[in-house]
Amino acid sequence: MTEQQTPYQPLQFETIQFEIRDGVAVLRLNRPDSLNSFNTQMHHEVRQALKAICQDPGVRCLLLTGNGRGFCAGQDLSDRSVAPGAEAPNLGESIEKNYNPLIRTLQRLPLPVICAVNGVAAGAGANIALACDLVLAARSASFIQAFCKIGLIPDSGGTWTLTHAVGRARAMGLALLGDKISAEQAQQWGMIWQMVEDDQLQEQAMQLARHLATQPTTGLALAKRAINAAATNTLDQQLELEQELQTVAGRSDDYREGVAAFMQKRPPSFKGH
């Protein structure tokens, strides 16, 4: 897709809002009456939006956020309630079909993924946010590993993401106690990139997305891939991966343009490939 001035709406949605404009895809969770909790329809519509992003080479950044007073309260429990004497739902099946593919897609998208957390991010909602590449949170936002309150474990990558972000002791405390973490504390602990004032969140997140959409997308995607791999690689494995990915980056048109712009003392004009 070439850059355009009008939004591109590939599909009509009910539980999300989605548009692509000037290289930025914006996906807004849109069930504000239920704090944007996920039901079956929202899972399906988010998958459709992400599929559209994957199929559009003009998308160079994704901004994920929510409408209303919260980012996402995780799973809509009315979809997973268990009546006395009824057969228990297979939560593992839901994770396999919905949450795990979502986390993997966010991690593997070959472009930056920004999350703007407006209000509460609880349960899977917290861990979906933490799976993004850059997380901005409003000062009033909070993160809650609410799973322990209903007898479950953190999913959507939460046990992995938290442990690598804040260490075993803090991850264990968050998982076992379910304490609410403020945006300020999340920034101090290294869970998120930046806390911003409530009335500035959407503007700053969009400014960041628009900036990243003008940068060398291939190089950013390769850096993302390398950093994600570092959590499980040895140093030798990481050095080899850096060599491999730098070889790819060095063959990109954007590298050629970046060097030319530096030598000519002018701003670069990156095309994302």
Average pLDDT across residues?
93
- The percent range for helix content is 40-55%
Main beta sheet strand tally, sense and closure? 6 strands, mixed
The global form is globular
Distance between the termini: 13 Å
- What is the CATH fold-level name of the largest domain? 2-enoyl-CoA Hydratase, Chain A, domain 1
| Sequence stretches where pLDDT stays below 50 over 5 or more residues | 1-7
| Strand arrangement in the largest pleated sheet | 1-2-3-5-7-10
Number of helices: 10
Write the layout of secondary structure elements.
Elements (H helix, E strand, L loop, with lengths): L15 E6 L2 E6 L10 H15 L6 E6 L3 E3 L18 H18 L4 E5 L2 E3 L1 H7 L3 E5 L3 E3 L13 H9 L1 H10 L2 E3 H7 L4 E3 L4 H12 L4 H14 L4 H16 L2 H11 L10
Parallel strand pairs: 2-3, 3-5, 4-6, 5-7, 6-8, 7-10
Antiparallel strand pairs: 1-2, 8-9
Short structural description:
It contains 10 helices and 10 strands. The chain is an alpha/beta fold and 273 residues long. The protein folds into 2 domains: 16-212, 2-enoyl-CoA Hydratase, Chain A, domain 1; 217-263, Lyase 2-enoyl-coa Hydratase, Chain  A, domain 2 (Orthogonal Bundle), CATH 1.10.12.
Structure description:
It is a single chain. This protein is α/β, with parallel strands linked by helices and 273 residues long. The protein has helices at residues 40-54, 91-108, 124-130, 158-166, 168-177, 183-189, 201-212, 217-230, 235-250, 253-263; strands at 16-21, 24-29, 61-66, 70-72, 113-117, 120-122, 134-138, 142-144, 180-182, 194-196. Helix content is 44%, strand content 16%. The protein contains 10 helices and 10 strands. It has 2 domains: 16-212, 2-enoyl-CoA Hydratase, Chain A, domain 1 (Alpha-Beta Complex), CATH 3.90.226; 217-263, Lyase 2-enoyl-coa Hydratase, Chain  A, domain 2, CATH 1.10.12. Strand 1 and strand 2 form a beta hairpin. The longest helix is centred in the middle third of the chain and has 18 residues, at 91-108. It has a 6-stranded mixed beta sheet, with helices on both faces.
